[in-house]
């Protein structure tokens, strides 16, 4: 490929510059084939720790490890040419101290080649975000519904319903913004709160179940593609991948059982003198 034809990868400053501009298109990606399909359409590919639930069948994201994130991150990076690739730091790899977060984030970026990390950022995380960004690690914040807090919160619940919660989510947003996050995911809040946060912070907000009032949107790709029977209520399904896969495999299984498929198509043709 000539240097002129090479696609330029979207960088952290490009994302930051989209505040209030054309909405950011972001999706989760966990593996090579899907990342290759998503990459031309997306500004950001997030290797989310939701992979623990979507790919590995865990009940929550708590059991996801740094090694899992790195393995999936490498696969996504091999496929992606243009999107900014962000990798989640999983539970237990960044909360203890800024130093712990730096060691985890540095390992993720060095081993995968991704451009940034995301952390679920309560108000306390401001110090960590500042520590990382001052040392050259771009950080995306994640506020509102924080899936890694599921044990404490009793599941995945929308945030900002009471005055105290509303104030807490605003404080989380400000802490991430002031500490230098380049973008902030807002999960599971209503439109009024998403609009308020988006107006108050200097960087793009990326909503998931948080209304179109954000500077961009992100979804778990398998939810939008309809891979599973269940998806969160706010997700519009654009395909029924689960049914498509099940139907195709069912038809192939029937052909195999009835020996009806054209045998030649399922057989290597080896010429006698090749042996
Ligand atoms: O883990 C994840 O996939 C996420 C997004 C859905 C925002 O954090």
Could you explain the architecture of this structure?
This protein is α/β, with parallel strands linked by helices and 275 residues long. It has a single domain, classed as Phosphoenolpyruvate-binding domains (TIM Barrel, Alpha-Beta Barrel). Helix content is 39%, strand content 13%. The chain has helices at 12-16, 32-38, 51-54, 66-79, 98-112, 126-134, 150-153, 163-179, 191-200, 221-224, 241-258, and strands at 24-28, 44-47, 84-88, 116-118, 139-144, 183-187, 205-208, 216-219. It has an eight-stranded parallel β-barrel with strand order 1-2-3-4-5-6-7-8, surrounded by five helices. β3 (84-88), α5 and β4 form a beta-alpha-beta unit. The chain is globular and about 70 Å long. 40% of the residues are buried. The structure holds 3-methyl-2-oxobutanoic acid (KIV).
Brief descriptors of the model:
275 residues, alpha/beta, TIM Barrel, eight-stranded parallel barrel, 11 helices, binds 3-methyl-2-oxobutanoic acid
Q: Based on DSSP secondary structure assignment, what is the total number of beta strands? A: 8
Bound molecules: 3-methyl-2-oxobutanoic acid
Architecture per CATH nomenclature, i.e. the level-2 architecture: Alpha-Beta Barrel
Q: State the fourth-level CATH superfamily.
A: Phosphoenolpyruvate-binding domains
Highest CATH level, the class = Alpha Beta
Strand order of the largest sheet: 1-2-3-4-5-6-7-8
Question: In angstroms, what separates the terminal alpha carbons?
Answer: 38 Å
Overall average pLDDT: 93
Structural class: alpha/beta
Largest sheet: 8 strands, parallel, barrel
Q: What is the quaternary state of this protein?
A: single chain
Q: Write the CATH fold name.
A: TIM Barrel
Task: Please provide the ordered H/E string of secondary-structure elements.
Answer: HEHEHHEHEHEHHEHEEHH
What fraction strand? 5-15%
Regions with little confidence, pLDDT below 50 for 5+ residues: none
Kindly provide the radius of gyration, computed on alpha-carbon positions and rounded to a whole number of angstroms.
21 Å
Count of the separate structural domains: 1
The proportion of residues forming helix, as a percent range, comes to 25-40%
Q: What is the count of helical runs?
A: 11
Quick one: overall form?
globular
């Amino acid at each position: 490929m000539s240097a002129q034809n090479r696609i330029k990868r979207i960088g952290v400053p490009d994302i930051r510059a989209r505040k209030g501009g054309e909405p950011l298109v972001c999706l989760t990606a966990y593996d090579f084939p899907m990342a290759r399909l998503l990459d031309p359409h997306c500004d950001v590919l997030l290797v989310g720790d939701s992979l623990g639930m979507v790919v590995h069948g865990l009940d929550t994201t708590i059991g996801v490890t740094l090694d899992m994130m790195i393995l999936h991150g490498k696969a996504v990076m091999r496929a992606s040419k243009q999107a900014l690739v962000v990798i989640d730091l999983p539970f237990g790899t960044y909360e203890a101290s800024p130093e712990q977060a730096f060691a985890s984030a540095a390992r993720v970026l060095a081993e995968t080649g991704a451009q940034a990390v995301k952390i679920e950022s309560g108000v306390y995380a401001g110090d960590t975000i500042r520590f990382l960004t001052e040392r050259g690690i771009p950080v995306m914040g994640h506020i509102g519904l924080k899936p890694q807090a599921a044990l404490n919160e009793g599941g995945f619940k929308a945030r900002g319903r009471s005055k105290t919660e509303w104030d807490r989510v605003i404080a989380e947003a400000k802490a991430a913004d002031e500490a230098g996050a380049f973008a902030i995911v807002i999960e599971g809040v209503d439109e009024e709160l998403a609009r308020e946060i988006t107006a108050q912070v200097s960087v793009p907000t990326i909503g998931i179940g948080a209304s179109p009032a954000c500077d961009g949107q992100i979804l778990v790709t398998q939810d939008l593609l309809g891979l599973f029977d269940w998806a969160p209520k706010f997700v519009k399904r654009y395909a029924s991948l689960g049914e498509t896969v099940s139907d195709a495999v069912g038809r192939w299984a029937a052909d195999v059982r009835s020996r009806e498929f054209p045998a030649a198509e399922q057989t290597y043709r080896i010429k006698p003198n090749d042996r």
